[in-house]
Each structure stands twice: as structure tokens, then as C-alpha cells.
Specification:
It contains three helices and no strands. It is mainly alpha-helical and about 100 residues long. It has one domain (about 10-85). The longest helix is centred in the middle third of the chain and has 31 residues, at about 25-55. It is elongated. This is Type II toxin-antitoxin system ParD family antitoxin.
């Protein structure tokens, strides 16, 4: 196996993790870091696949100008904000006190 050379910052971080008792050995620290890297890589690959599937299915939007993209992003943000601030269930005015029409 290839020798691993750590920067001073990485060496210090590893030592801190060992001193705090978070890990038993430096190998455990490296193994944990590699596990996080693996998980992030898998998530990135999953998201790329979702994007490719969306493009293949025609689920995408094109923009003529960067300003149009900005407007679209702001509209999406407003929609999400409105969805979060709306009560989960609010009877309509047409409904009676019991919530039924």
C-alpha cells in the first residue's frame, strides 16, 4: 500500500481526534474520513443520475438570458418560502365548523 503523508494541519487534527477519544487509532480517523468521502461520492453519483434521467425525460428548463435564470430561481425560492409559511391544514371558508362541506 502507498504511504500516506499528512499535512501539518491534518496531522494536528488527527492527534486532536485521538486525544478527545473520538477514535482509537490514526487508522480509525483516516477510515472515518474515507467513509465520508465514499458516502459523498455515492450521493454525487446518485444526483448526477437523477439529473441525467430528468434531461432524458425532458424535465428541464432552458433560459435565453442569465436574468431569466435569476428570475426563475427567485420565483422558486418564493414558492418554497410560501409553502413553508402556509399552515398545514386550513379549512376553506366554504367549509363549515366541522371542516366538511
Amino acid at each position: 500500500m502507498t504511504d500516506i503523508h499528512l499535512s501539518d494541519d491534518d496531522r494536528t487534527f488527527t492527534e486532536e481526534q485521538l486525544q478527545m477519544g473520538a477514535y482509537r487509532t490514526a487508522d480509525d480517523v483516516i477510515r472515518a474520513g474515507l467513509q465520508v468521502l465514499r458516502e459523498e461520492d455515492e450521493e454525487l453519483r446518485r444526483l448526477i443520475k437523477v439529473g441525467e434521467d430528468d434531461i432524458e425525460a425532458g424535465r428541464y428548463v432552458t433560459f435565453e438570458k442569465a436574468g431569466d435564470l435569476k428570475k426563475h430561481i427567485l420565483a422558486l425560492a418564493r414558492e418554497r418560502q410560501n409553502a413553508r409559511s402556509a399552515p398545514e391544514h386550513e379549512p376553506s371558508r366554504a367549509q363549515g365548523p366541522s371542516g366538511h362541506l
